[in-house]
Amino acid sequence: MDLTNWNPYGPFSEEFNKLFRGVPMKASDVIMPPVDIYLTEKDVIVEISLPGVNQKNVDISVDDNNILIVKGKIEKKSELDDENYYRKERKIGSFYRSVSLPVRINGDKARAEYESGILKIFLPKMPEGKTTQIKINEK
User: How many angstroms separate the CA atoms of 15 and 131, rounded?
Assistant: First the structure.
């Protein structure tokens, strides 16, 4: 039996490269921050853990297929050289997260807040479609 490396992104690896302006990278280099999604009566709320991220380095969008896309960069400025570290576990680099939203949302009224390393995105739900009765005119 042959063993091969498993790539969780499969054919989408090339799409990741395009997203990050042609910067050559492997899919394994992309940081995928954890996401919580919950519903209130009026909103879909998405919380993403982005500790230490400057909010200027975050782009948020919702595409026509009702997919939320959050991407950006995690940068760390340090006066220490890498050789002075005893342990270095925090990752730096590009992050990308996309999630399919459970209901249609009104992107024009969406807003986001960033506090204590948590990005909180409020996406107002679109009103449920109303059923309209159509009367048949007699001739």
Answer: 40
Q: Indicate the fold that domain 10-76+91-124 takes in CATH.
A: Immunoglobulin-like (2.60.40)
Question: Under a CB-based contact definition with an 8 Å cutoff, are residues 111 and 122 in contact?
Answer: yes
- Looking at residue 102, its amino acid is P
- Token pair 């500790």: residue: 51
> Based on the number of CB atoms within 10 Å of its own CB, is 112 exposed (0-12), middle (13-18) or buried (19 or more)?
middle
Residue of 31, 13, 101 lying closest to 73 (CA atoms) = 31
Query: For residue 44, which of 117, 109, 130 has the smallest C-alpha distance?
Result: 109
Closest CA to 123 of 72, 53, 68, 50: 68
Instruction: Identify the residue whose tokens are 């009566």.
Output: 41
The DSSP symbol for 95 reads E
d(CA 44, CA 11): 30
Quick: pLDDT tens for 126-135.
887 655 666 7
Task: Kindly report the pTM of this predicted structure.
Answer: 0.67
